[in-house]
Design brief:
The chain is an all-alpha fold. Helix content is 69%, strand content 0%. The longest helix has 30 residues. It is globular.
């Protein structure tokens, strides 16, 4: 996969996330049915997941060198985790086979170069475009910001999918918590809290509350009243499931 196609597929995923968010907040008032295309919800999940995979591959080098990153090796090493994550995503959004095939079509787990410009994109241009873009300290900073950003967007996309198509709050929240813990593990050392700690998942949840939930719950937010109620229920359920981080 060329660098241009990496950036293009990631950008498409981010656009899909924005589109699905708009649909959640502006769809006609119909419950329990929601007029949201299944593939839009799926792409909104797979976009940030692609960032999680690429950032995790860079972090796994321990040298913060994109040239040394191997997404297919990450996929092979974490095969069981990736397989379970995709199973969970499928159930969260009640996604059919054609939608689940989108992730494979995007090629994030197939062998392809991972570039410093890709880390720049996943981090929402956290660094200046300069000859120092590929230096380890710069890549590390972009990777850490990108991990925070893509994990938070991943969580929002999962909640959107669960609200639109999912199995209900009790089951949906449990699945989302599991997916988030797996995703935190995939980004590895790019997350300050540690890749194997429940603390990382709780931190992502707290970032999501500030970045997305707070605005959605306001009475004058663009979210439908029935959607606001469900966002609140999912937040309460996730809070209980993820729990407060233990002190070291």
């Amino acid at each position: 996969m060329t660098q241009q196609s990496d950036l293009g597929s990631g950008s498409s995923g981010l656009r899909a996330a924005e589109e699905s968010e708009n649909l959640i907040t502006s769809a006609p008032s119909r419950m329990p049915e929601w007029d949201i295309p299944e593939d839009a919800l799926g792409r909104a999940v797979f976009g940030p997941l692609g960032g999680i995979v690429e950032i995790g591959a860079v972090a796994a080098t321990e040298t913060w060198s994109p040239q040394e990153a191997s997404v297919d090796e990450l996929g092979s090493t974490r095969r069981d985790d990736v397989a379970r994550l995709l199973e969970v995503i499928k159930e969260v959004g009640d996604f059919g086979g054609p939608v689940m095939e989108i992730f494979d079509e995007l090629g994030y787990l197939r062998a392809h170069p991972v570039s410093a410009p890709a880390m720049l994109m996943w981090s929402s241009v956290y660094e200046d475009v300069s000859p120092r873009l590929g230096e380890p300290d710069t890549v590390r900073r972009m990777s850490r910001v990108g991990a925070d950003l893509q994990l938070t967007r991943f969580l929002q996309a999962l909640v959107n999918a669960a609200i639109a198509r999912g199995p209900g709050v009790a089951r949906g929240a449990a699945l989302i918590a599991e997916a988030l813990r797996i995703a935190v593990g995939l980004v590895g050392g790019a997350l300050d809290e540690g890749p194997d700690s429940a603390r990382g998942a709780m931190t992502v949840y707290r970032m999501w509350r500030v970045a997305f939930l707070a605005d959605l719950l306001l009475p004058d937010s663009p979210a439908r009243p029935d959607a606001r109620a469900l966002f609140r229920e999912y937040a309460h359920a996730l809070d209980a499931l993820l729990g407060a981080p233990s002190r070291p």
